[in-house]
Every structure is written in structure tokens, then in C-alpha cells.
Design brief:
The complex is a heterodimer of chains A (230) and B (313).
Chain A: H1 4-27, H2 31-56, H3 59-87, H4 100-121, H5 127-152, H6 156-176, H7 182-204, H8 210-222
Chain B: H1 3-34, H2 44-54, H3 65-83, H4 100-120, H5 124-155, H6 160-170, H7 176-192, H8 211-214, H9 220-245, H10 256-282, H11 292-312
The chains are: A mainly alpha (230), B mainly alpha (313).
């Protein structure tokens, strides 16, 4: 059995990875790497769930890790990457309200506020409590940062990625603070998959009738060089 | 001032002068490999420096005394700054040596004189280089201060020597806060040494050059001093990053074997870091000038986060 202190150290390092990926998602303009970074973030969450399993030993965590791995590391990134190949948007340079730099600065303030707010609610002194407290703070911050991505980007595809990273925050919060029932976690993931499938439709064109939409899909597939969407 | 400390001064300066040109060429070599070229020899920077030292110095008729003293002031300021960052051996700090704020402002002094010399010769490229360098440095300055403040918060000390003592004593691989600081320091290293997302050290194209623009009017021996000082600056910042994040092998007592091991360990770690920088540069394109703040914001974000964590927990 691995020592508890080592596992806590590993979890802390994984927290850092989550922060780094979140900061990257919020500030990058390169769409292709956003998807892989999202997959990386989900993978980090899987690792955190596994580490927590070694710490607590509840089997639900293993199940969460498994489901997250299959859905968020493999299926969803694969779907989104496929859409991107079809619509050939490489860069996302249009923003509403906030530029990436500003949103990074705002997310910093958000984290501070959440930290102070939560420290009034959760009272914990030993290091173990401390770890769980950090998990909660990080979870909510990740949620809000995802929300910021959702409203500050113009492209539908990045909006969806922001939403997905929001859900990662919920998962993180759920792992550390409340015992989220597994069935709810599972339902959320099914929701996500449906959302991603809907995005395929949205990003190609929601304003059209079904026949028209079919035609558009064909156009994207076949007449690649005449339909440049940037 | 005791004997150990005098010895430290000699060893540190000798080592940094001897090895810093190597890493400049090493980065070039790595970049050449990623482009599928074989690239210049890893000793090329030494040859260039020797060649330049033999050539005569030519001053523009418009230039003043500033042009003549700048290479000396720059190299002197950076060599003194290099004393603040122990490469292989950490002695007890004496006086103000090792103070992190003084360290920053010595680097700023060198940069200030470099910018003045760029303006002094009266060529338009030099002026453009200086103006860009100053705009970038005024943006990066708050970030740098915050990063070093985060360092001071983590180690509860303003002295680089004390920080190295702590990391060398704990000997453990990086803690989470140090990883975040490492990323911020890496960004600062890239910006301060004018490397790729900020400036391209290999081009002399008027539209893009920043650092090269300022030293365009230097020639001969003076140019060699300028090149050497930028190489030393890069190695000092690399050493700061390395000795904080992976402090294995650094000597805290003065023995011959200990120093030897420390030098070898340092060379290996520094070569790895140079490789990382080379790969990082090859994988990125130069950023547009007005997009640079987003790069700094990242460093700012991470280090402020560390301060928040350190203050509130």
C-alpha cells in the first residue's frame, strides 16, 4: 500500500495540472490544441479519482474514473476532433466582452473570492481536510472558468468546450466535497455526449431545414475548397 | 569576508564565463536538428567570440561616450548579477549579495544601458529596437516582480542563497507550488533573453528584431562583450530555474569532489533545459507584439495564485 502522504502529494501535483490546463483553455486561440488539452484535463481528473480511491477505498470512485476515461478522454474529444476536421476552423480569434488576458485576470479574482467564501463555510484544520478544501475551491473555480469560456467565445465549438470544462469542475467538486451519486454522474455524461452530437449539428447550421441541412453537410464533405469557414 | 566566500566568487564567475556560450550554441543545435539540418558545432559561439575579440571596433561618428561604456557596464552588471545565483556551490551569504530585488535591478541596469546604446548611434533600427525593448520590459516588469514575490513568499526569504539552501536541504523533487513557479520562471526566462515567442534571436529583419536591433551598431570587441553578456544572462536565469526546481547535486560545503559532482550535474541539467528551450522555440511561431501580454498574464496568473495560497493557508 502506498503511503497516505505520498498520495496527497500526488493529488496536489494533479491539482496544479488542472489549474494549468484550465488557464490554457481560457487563454489559447488555437482550437486544435484546446481539444487535446481538454482531454488532458479529463485524464488528470481520472488520475485524481484513482488517487482518491487509494486514499478512501470507495468503489464508486473507480467507476467514476472508468466512465470519465471512456467518455471524456476518448469519445468526446474524438467527436469534437472529427467535427473540427470537417469544418476546418483552426483558430478562434473572436471574443465577446472579454479578451483572454482579461478573463485570466478575472478568473484569478474569482478564485480568491471562492477561496474566501468557502473558508467561511468549510471549517477544516488538519492537512487532509485542507486537501479536500482545495479540491472544492478548484472545482468551483474550474466551473466558473468554464462558464467564462462559454460566454466570452463566439464560436459554437469553443462554447461547447467551455461547457465541458465546466462539467469537469462539477465532477471535481463532487469528488471532493459531496458524495455525488454515481447515477447522476452517469446521466451527466450521457447529457454531455448528446450535447456534443448536437454541436455537430449546431456548428454546421441550425438555421436550415432538414433538407437544406443535409445539403450543407454534403457541401462541407465534398466541395471542400469552395467553402472556407474561418 | 571569509576565504570560502572569495573562493565562491572566483569559482562562480569562472564557471559561468566558461560554460555560458556553450548553451547558446546548444539551443541553436537543437533547433537545427528539429528543422532537419545538422547545424553549427556546439562550440561555434566560442569561435565567434574569439573572432570578434580580434577585430577592431568601429564607432559611428554620431555616437557619444555611452556607446563606449555600454559593453563594459552591461557585462559588469550581469556578472555581478551572476554572483547572486550560485551555480554549483552555495556559501553563506555576505552583505547584500543574493538579494532578489537587487538582482532584478542589476538586470534592469544592463537593459537600460543597452537601450541607451541602441539610441546613441543614431541609426533608426537601434531606436526601434530600444523602444520595443522598453515597452516589453515595462510590461514584463510587474510580472517579474510578482513571480519573485511569490518566490519570497514560498521560501520566506528575500535572499536567493537562502532559497537554494532550503531546496538543496529538502532535496525532494518539485512541490506543487514550485511547479507553478517553474512555469512562471520559464516564461520570464524566455522573455528576458529575447527568445522566440517574443523576439527571434536569429533574424536581422527590421520588422521583428528587438535585442539584435539594439546591438546592431556594436562591432568588434564590444560586440563580443555584448554577446557574452547576453549568454551569461541566459545561463544565470537558467541556473535560477534549475537550482530551485531540481536542486540535486548542488554543493553546500566546499570540497573538491562535491564541486566536481555539482558541475557535472549542473551541466547535465542545463543541457536538458537548453534542449527544452530549443524544442519550445521550434514548436512556436513568433507572437504578434500586441499579443505578448497574454503570455505574461499566464506567468502573472500562476504566481498570484501561489501568493494567494501562501497567504491564506
Amino acid at each position: 500500500m502506498i503511503e497516505q502522504v505520498t498520495i496527497e502529494g500526488i493529488i496536489r501535483i494533479l491539482f496544479v495540472c488542472v489549474i494549468i490546463t484550465a488557464a490554457y483553455i481560457i487563454s489559447t486561440r488555437n482550437l486544435l490544441s484546446v481539444v487535446s488539452v481538454y482531454a488532458l484535463q479529463s485524464l488528470t481528473l481520472v488520475c485524481i479519482a484513482l488517487a482518491l480511491y487509494f486514499l478512501e477505498g470507495s468503489v464508486v470512485l473507480l467507476a467514476i474514473a472508468g466512465v470519465t476515461f471512456i467518455s471524456k478522454v476518448i469519445i468526446i474529444p474524438y467527436f469534437i476532433a472529427t467535427i473540427q476536421e470537417k469544418i476546418r476552423i483552426k483558430r478562434d480569434i473572436e471574443f465577446h466582452y472579454l479578451s483572454p488576458t482579461t478573463s485570466l485576470l478575472i478568473s484569478m479574482i474569482l478564485m480568491l473570492v471562492i477561496y474566501m467564501a468557502l473558508s467561511r463555510i468549510v471549517v477544516g484544520s488538519p492537512s487532509r481536510e485542507n486537501l479536500f478544501f482545495f479540491g472544492a475551491v478548484l472545482g468551483i473555480s474550474l466551473m466558473l472558468m468554464g462558464m467564462m469560456v462559454t460566454f466570452s467565445r463566439k464560436r459554437a465549438i469553443t462554447k461547447v468546450l467551455g461547457f465541458l470544462s465546466m462539467e469537469n469542475g462539477v465532477l471535481l467538486f463532487g469528488m471532493f466535497v459531496t458524495e455525488l451519486p454515481f447515477i447522476i454522474e452517469f446521466l451527466i455524461i450521457i447529457d454531455l455526449i448528446i450535447l456534443v452530437i448536437l454541436t455537430t449539428i449546431l456548428s454546421v447550421g441550425i438555421d436550415s431545414t432538414l433538407e437544406d441541412y443535409h445539403k450543407r453537410l454534403h457541401r462541407f464533405h465534398l466541395l471542400d475548397d469552395s467553402e472556407e469557414v474561418i | 569576508m571569509n576565504f570560502d566566500f572569495v573562493l565562491y566568487l572566483v569559482i562562480n564567475t569562472a564557471i559561468i564565463l566558461a560554460i555560458s556560450p556553450l548553451f547558446v550554441s546548444l539551443i541553436k543545435k537543437v533547433k537545427a536538428w528539429t528543422q532537419g539540418r545538422s547545424g553549427p558545432s556546439v562550440f561555434q559561439t566560442y569561435f565567434t567570440l574569439i573572432k570578434l575579440l580580434k577585430k577592431e571596433v568601429i564607432y559611428s561618428p554620431n555616437s557619444s561616450r555611452i556607446m563606449r561604456v555600454t559593453p563594459l557596464v552591461t557585462l559588469a552588471a550581469i556578472l555581478v548579477a551572476a554572483l547572486f545565483v550560485p551555480l554549483v556551490f552555495v556559501p553563506e551569504p555576505i552583505g547584500g549579495i543574493g538579494n532578489i530585488i537587487l538582482f532584478l535591478y542589476l538586470l534592469a541596469l544592463a537593459r537600460f544601458f543597452m537601450a541607451l546604446a541602441g539610441l546613441d548611434a543614431g541609426s533608426c533600427f537601434g531606436g526601434m529596437g530600444s523602444s520595443r525593448e522598453m515597452s516589453i520590459s515595462s510590461i514584463i516588469e510587474p510580472t517579474t516582480i510578482i513571480v519573485f514575490a511569490a518566490l519570497a513568499f514560498v521560501f520566506k526569504s528575500l535572499n536567493i542563497f537562502d532559497m537554494f539552501f532550503l531546496t538543496a536541504a529538502s532535496g525532494s523533487p518539485a512541490t506543487p507550488t514550485l511547479i507553478l513557479i517553474g512555469i512562471s520562471l520559464f516564461i520570464i526566462l524566455i522573455v528576458e533573453t529575447s527568445r522566440i515567442p517574443v523576439d527571434n534571436p536569429e533574424t536581422h529583419l527590421e520588422l521583428t528584431m528587438i535585442h539584435e536591433g539594439m546591438i546592431l551598431e556594436q562591432s568588434g570587441r564590444n560586440l563580443a562583450l555584448m554577446e557574452l553578456s547576453s549568454a551569461v544572462k541566459m545561463t544565470v536565469l537558467m541556473a535560477l530555474l534549475i537550482n530551485l526546481i531540481v536542486p540535486f547535486g548542488i554543493a553546500t560545503t566546499l570540497t573538491f569532489a562535491g564541486i566536481l559532482i555539482a558541475v557535472i550535474a549542473f551541466m547535465i541539467k542545463c543541457s536538458v533545459l537548453a534542449g527544452v528551450i530549443g524544442l519550445f522555440e521550434s514548436s512556436m511561431a513568433k507572437k504578434r507584439f500586441f499579443q505578448l501580454p497574454s503570455l505574461f498574464a499566464m506567468a502573472f496568473f500562476f504566481s498570484t495564485l501561489i501568493i494567494i495560497i501562501e497567504v491564506f493557508s
